[in-house]
Amino acid sequence: MIGPHPFHAVGEKYVVAVRDGARAIPLLIPVLEDPIAMDEILSIVDGVFLTGSPSNVAPDLYGGQRPRDGVLQDRRRDSTTLPLIRHVIASGKPFLAVCRGFQEMNVAFGGTLHQHLEEVAGRIDHREDKAAPLEIQYASAHDIALASGGFLERLAGKPSARVNSLHAQGIDRIGEGLIVEATAPDGTIEAIRAADAQAFALGVQWHPEWKFWEDAFSASIFSAFGQALAGQIQGVGEAR
User: Fold this and answer.
1) Is 119 a catalytic residue?
2) Separation of CA 154 from chain center
């Protein structure tokens, strides 16, 4: 809600990352009470990018407990994105997901989520300090280990990378058909890909869109997504 009215909105950082990082034209997909048909969406786009959001996936969709008071939900987004994820990947169109989108990707493939990751034994607090300036919130927070032979390791050209961290939720059980591409030092899954996807199909828990031009690894993710949209690269599986 913005004032008394419901709005469809997307953060400018995502728009800029698609336009300048992937060199594509960003179009917002409305999430309506009666969802737009998947085939209609895919008939007018070259690929799909699912952004982060203040809201979380409704936990009853993955068998989780009722959310605590104050935790934002977005049922209309859930109704559009969860079926769309499987549909776009099966269609062979490129797919990229960030933060909430990453969590949606896991749920769409039958996985589950931790609703309060900081309360899980052995896990660190992955949340940002919301009272801090944005430059501090989005600053590099921890290293991630990139899966040996995986797409992100090849993209980074090294076995690890450093990323920001602005999430309270995270993957509990990974979805069927998904492969881990990166993990945090506490074991939290930070990136996944669809194993059998014929095109680019990647999800990351951090926020590479934030000033992507200042970070070579972030820039390379959007560049690769753009190349996939243009048909210049195919899937993101292991090196052959």
Assistant:
1) no
2) 19
